[in-house]
Design a protein that fits this description.
Elements: E1 21-26, H1 31-35, H2 48-68, E2 76-79, H3 83-95, E3 104-105, H4 122-125, H5 130-138, H6 151-162, E4 169-173, H7 175-186, E5 203-207, E6 210-213
Helix pairs in contact: 2-3, 6-7
C-alpha cells in the first residue's frame, strides 16, 4: 500500500471515449452526505433536501430538453442500482413527466466501495487509522480502502462501461463515479480526479467534447 512518504506521481488518464451526448446527475443528498460520512455502497436513502434536489434536477433537465429540441424517447436512462440513485431517477423522470419506472440499472456505475470505512467520517477514523488516513491524503487516487476499492480500481469498471455508451444517455449515479467518468472523458491528471466538486443540484452535460452544467 502506498505510504505518505512515497505517493506515486500523478499521471494523465487516457481519453477512452467521446460520447455524442451524455448527461450525468448525482443522486440527491442523504443524511450521511450531510454528516460527511463515507457512504460508498451502503444503501442510504435520500433525505428531504435530496428529494428536492432530485425533483429540481428533473425540472432543469426537462427545460434543457425543450430548449434543445431533444426527445427523451431517444435517450437511454441508466441508474446505479443503489436505492438513492434509483429514487433520484424516479423523481427526476416524474418531474420530466415521464414514466418514473422506465429506466434500466447498471451495476458497473455503483459508487466506489469504501469497505470497512463506510459509515465513518475521517475525523472518527483519525485516531485508530491515522497511518491509513495519511496514506489516503498523500494518494487519493491509488489509496485502497480497507476491504474496499481505490479510485484507480473504480476507473477500470467505469471505463469498461463508458466504452459501451453508443447512444444519447442520461445517467444517475454517484460523486465518485462522476469524478472518474470526467477524468476519463477529459484525460485529467489522476491526482485531480478525486478532488473534483460534484454538486447534487446540477445537471452535467457532455456534448461537443466538453462538459457544461445547468
Amino acid at each position: 500500500m502506498t505510504s505518505a512518504s512515497s505517493a506515486r506521481p500523478s499521471t494523465l488518464l487516457p481519453r477512452l471515449h467521446d460520447p455524442e451526448l451524455l448527461i450525468f446527475i448525482r443522486h440527491g443528498q442523504t443524511d450521511w452526505n450531510a454528516e460527511g460520512r463515507m457512504q460508498g455502497q451502503r444503501d442510504i436513502p435520500l433525505n428531504a433536501t435530496g428529494e428536492g434536489q432530485a425533483t429540481g434536477n428533473g425540472t432543469r433537465l426537462k427545460a434543457y430538453f425543450e430548449t434543445q429540441g431533444l426527445d427523451p424517447a431517444a435517450f437511454d436512462f441508466v441508474s446505479s442500482p443503489l436505492g438513492r440513485t434509483r429514487r433520484t431517477m424516479e423523481l427526476l423522470r416524474t418531474a420530466m413527466q415521464l414514466d418514473p419506472q422506465a429506466y434500466r440499472q447498471e451495476s458497473r456505475i455503483a459508487e466506489i466501495s469504501f469497505g470497512a470505512w463506510e459509515g465513518f467520517t475521517l475525523e472518527e477514523l483519525a485516531d485508530d487509522e491515522q497511518d491509513l488516513v495519511l496514506q489516503r491524503r498523500a494518494d487519493k487516487w491509488g489509496f485502497l480502502y480497507p476491504e474496499g476499492e481505490s479510485y484507480e480500481r473504480l476507473s477500470e469498471r467505469i471505463g469498461a462501461w463508458l466504452q459501451t455508451v453508443d447512444r444519447p444517455t442520461v445517467v444517475v449515479a454517484h460523486g465518485g463515479v462522476y469524478r472518474v467518468m470526467r477524468g476519463l472523458l477529459e484525460g485529467l491528471e489522476t491526482a485531480k480526479v478525486p478532488t473534483l466538486d460534484v454538486p447534487q443540484d446540477k445537471v452535467f452535460i457532455w456534448r461537443g467534447s466538453r462538459f457544461e452544467d445547468v
